Amino acid sequence: MPKILQARLEQYMTRELSDIQAGFISGRGTRDHIANIRWIMEFIDYMKVFDCVDHNKLWTVLNDMGVPKHLICLLKNLYTDQEATVRTEYGLTEWFKNEKGVRQGCILSPCLFNLYPEYIMRNADINNLRYADDTTLMAENEDDLKALLMKVKEESAKAGLLLNIKKTKIMSTDTVNRIQIDGEEIAVMK
Fold first, then answer.
1. How high is the pLDDT of residue 38?
2. The Reverse transcriptase domain covers which part of the protein (predicted)?
3. How far apart are CA 112 and CA 173, in angstroms?
4. Which residues contact 107 (CB under 8 A, 6 or more apart)?
């Protein structure tokens, strides 16, 4: 069933995902983004991104991106009343209801995940480069970069995703001052 749904979803992904997404897309890779290297760049990392995708928001995203209602309904059925257990060094945990995130190891998960940040970046109206769950923002100066980062932070929060400031980095060909978000300083790479 996931393989059939994946084949159906791919036609919408090809149409809806912009050229800035290079992860999980046939014929695209990180080399496609190298030409943009002369800007101040912000490498954004999300906290536990695959585990935080809100299912109800995901259905809204799919609907807004033009995925037919019958496919969304099939996906809802696949995700409804999911239960999981986790293998630890002490054995298996108790079964629990899984109400967030995309399914680990499922061939549909990259498709579903790719549409989620696409929706966030469209709402933030930001040009960016993405490879799977890694996002790069580019700006010509620090003020523009901070403004972009704040827009992404706000739109991401609306979608239930939080930025991982400890893993978010700034890279610049010039000297750049430190930027703080919510009192946490973003590291500058040299």
1. 47
2. 1-190
3. 35
4. 2, 3, 6
pLDDT category, 75, cuts 50, 70, 90? very high
One-letter amino acid at 124 equals: A
Work out the widest C-alpha separation in the chain, in whole angstroms: 52
- The CA distance from 42 to 170, in Å, is 5
Distance CA 57, CA 59 (A): 5
Place of tokens 């800007």: 39
More confident residue, 70 or 156: 70
Range name among 31-40, 88-97, 161-170 with the lowest pLDDT average: 31-40
Amino acid type, 163? L
